[in-house]
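Give me the fold.
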Amino acid sequence: MPFPGIFRVTCDTPIPGLPHVHVYMAEGEHGGIVLIDTAMPFGDSFERIKQGIEWLGRSPSDVERIYLTHAHPDHFGCAGRLQELTGAPVVCHPFAKRALEAMGNPDPERWKQRLVVYAEHGWADEDELTGRMSSSFQQMVLPEEMTTIDEGDAVTFGGGSFDIYWTPGHEEGHVVFFRKSDRLCVVGDTVLGKITPHIGWMPGGSGVSPDVEPSDPLGQFLDSLEKVAQLDPSLVLPGHGRPFDEGAERAHAIAAHHEARLRRCMGILIRRGPLNALEVAHDLFDRQLLHFEVRLALAETLAHLEYLRLRGRLQREMRDGVWCYEAPKRLIP
């Protein structure tokens, strides 16, 4: 599907509730083409990307760069195989590069440490991934050659210059590509049209040690939404779903969603007293969570609880090896 100077290939994913992801292609600075994101090795995704290159009248050797918006498997999963096919470097934010390097050197102790941290927040189930998901992860080939981009850089593709903006929150190394001339924004997962991006507090994110607590993912994300709103995109090309206009309006709507969720977290703790994060999550999402959803719900809840705690609106205390969150006494009837 064509956009101004940019083409889209849609690929399937094995992720429940997120059935597809987009790969964007455009003419590069030196007469070849660039890719933005790579989908993941599931179904015929790799073949679809190759067919997209051919549909543009190009061959794999014409690929100049493979840009990644962020280091999540549905966006980088085919990057290594595409690098092998094309010889092109993979280009991403330094934090995304660090995360990919950590994935390329898996350490079982890191995963054990992560499970310990989750247990401290009320969840001790080790059987997280479905076989369908695991199979796709096992097929991933990570890129060997990576270079970095960061806020303040500019890259050329699609007949114009795109400024890079760092938009952490959904993933610490997330970037968006913004073309000032027509306010087109390739936004990855920072702003989506019909759903809200997952914002999760995850120990060991972006390749850091699992015993180091994440900074403040929701705080980062709200700042990133405001950054995108200030750009006021006229056309947004997201990682999932249809393109949309009025990017600032959508960014503000997503921010309002999280403000409402913060108020709900406060209300749950005021009403029910000290709770661990998993207990808050079950109340917050107010339905029976499927197995794979539990970790996502816990991570999202923790992002909101930690946002409140870091700003002095909640406190937490370790009780019998589990962190319990509590509203200030002055707020409890």
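DSSP finds ten helices and 14 strands in the chain.
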